[in-house]
Design brief:
alpha/beta, Rossmann fold, six-stranded parallel sheet, three-stranded mixed sheet, 12 helices, 9 strands
Length: 310
Amino acid sequence: MATINSNHKIGWIGTGRMGYAMAKRLVEAGCDVAVYNRTRSKAEPLAELGATIVDKPADLADRDIVFTMVSGPDDLLHVVGGEDGVLSTPNTPRMLIDCSSVSEEASNEVRSLFSQRDATMLSAPVSGNAKVVAAGRLTLVVSGPEAAFEFAREHLEALGEGVTYVGEGELARMVKICHNVLLGVVTQSLAEIAVLAEKGGVPRHALLEFINNSVMGSMFSRYKTPAMVNLDWTPTFTPILLRKDMDLGLSAAERLGVPMQVAQATRERVQKSIDAGHTDCDFGILLEEQAKASGLKLESENKDVSDGLK
């Protein structure tokens, strides 16, 4: 990983699975990073790498750039504008970069709060999971003032391998919503063809090896292969979170007059998975739900297969 040359002081809010992995990359790139997390113990291992752990978001108000990676819109509004939030003191960071998956409405509200302080905000949602971050393969889509993007570019690029600037305002949110709708649709499609092939006598690992080596293969299909072959539903992204993003996408589609029958059908399958009690596992559980609907009992193939990230 390249060392960052700038001397900007960085704040980081949110050290869940993704936030921790991303903050770690900035620390390892040589950045001066101060970190807040609601559960302090989840952030403390970063102190051993050189980060400073603070007690509240307000303690980051003197930072040049503050990143946020939180669970949803209410969390974002709280850590920014709430009691002890980043904007609860007279000091103001030069810039906020939000990497969370939140609604355009919440993001616009935070953008307005920073604008009132003559500060800027970038929306920078991401594609990947913690393993992808660790492998240096994370991608980000960014929108907001172009000058602010250039100011923060070096830090954004340190988080992964691809940073795409798409324009002003909340355009990055639209891209992220579209991305996550596609995530759901592709996962459901993979579940359907895997079950179809298995009922026809083809082992899952063989089917997925072929798919991954074909023109249809992708980084996503490759890193989902071990989970689908061995039925490992350790969560990277839960059905609850996928449903939230599917709903955001379908709401935007209704508002903009775009029929999305395939996405709607996928959303129904995600809901059935949740109704079956699958709330804290990985959304790849769609495979097992598809198998049940098809009268097929799945078993782990216990195969050592590559996730394509190494």
